[in-house]
Amino acid sequence: MSAPTARLTDAQRFDWLRLIRSENIGPRTFRALINQFGGAGAALEALPELIRRKGGGRQIRIATVADCEKEIVAMNRAGARLIALGEPDYPATLREIDSPPPLLVMRGETSVFTRPMVAIVGSRNASAAGLAFAERIAHELAEAGYVIVSGLARGIDARCHRATLATGTIAVLAGGLDKIYPAEHASLFDQILPHGAVVSEMPMGWEPRGRDFPRRNRIVSGLALATVVVEAARRSGSLITARFANEQGREVFAVPGSPLDPRAEGANDLLRQGATICTRAADVIDALAPLVEKGIVSQMRLFEEDEAVSPQAEPLWDELDLFGALPAPLTMAGMELDEPPPQHSFVDARPGNSASPDGIEQSTVDRITELLGPSPVSVDEIVRTSGASAGEVQVILLDLELAGRIERHGGNLVSLIGTAKKS
Description:
By secondary structure, the chain is an alpha/beta fold. Helices cover 38% and strands 12% of the residues. The chain has 15 helices and twelve strands. α6 (128-143) runs parallel beside α12 (281-294).
């Protein structure tokens, strides 16, 4: 398939923006309208009558000229721009998915979209061992020429972005580019821009809602030739990304973890369902080499999920069915959807003793405990990841050791003792 060369005029781009920002116009309805009327301008003119005849009498709000002008001003102020589906700068891999965003709001270097991409996703409350592995594999994939894609979330996402700032990384946001979530990653957002890119399909000023995160996840997987899942709990939102990758015909890799750690249950389930095991970057590089060499996107469904989508799942966007279009993709009911991370549940707090050791703040104790798991990890890695001082880490580990909650191993490694609590 030859690469697109045509670009929209400013007037066409503005009409596209008005159409996709109109109420109940999602990617599928947008495409149907463009195909039916030959352009966004004609579709906007026809839409009121079309809704009256086929929309069941329902009134919808068509985006106003003033609203879209404000959004353009906000984009220009932020240094962002619109890339339309079918234009040369639009990522070729994303163009091939079932419901590609008609418009992407983008900041940074568009050149990263021309290189092969791999998505790495995983737990927000990841263990230190999981974070260290994610950083290593991201760095090695970057050295092999891949751009790392993720969702700017806490934990695995952020570690992979930081590991590949110099080589180029892509962050996909669930809200507008001026509504960074979590807010603490604003500086990471800025660090990505010199060599990478940040993209969203949502309007400037849009505060992300629960179902906007699965919408984002379909873009994360859609940009990439493969998705690697690191430390995903059984109800982790990362599994939504894996599901989308599978439906999009992309490679799905999972990093095996300890059966004692609930943060590994989802990834281990993926392996049982047929995902490819990933224990090193070479596993991904070797599998993708034929695709990269031929310049093609895989379109093979790799495995069948064990569970059907729950009836409580909701569509990713509200979309009018004006032409008998297929329904929008669904969320997976009960998934975490990137809400604030839950309290660590691997071990119980020590009975009768809730005080922090030696006056150390409880938040520091919680953070270090959160990083521990059944897999041994070096004390140096805990210090580096937690941001606590070496002295604080040693005091907390000693307190945990005296309580019988951790085990020490050779090479200055420690691991958590206990069994996962069932939720």
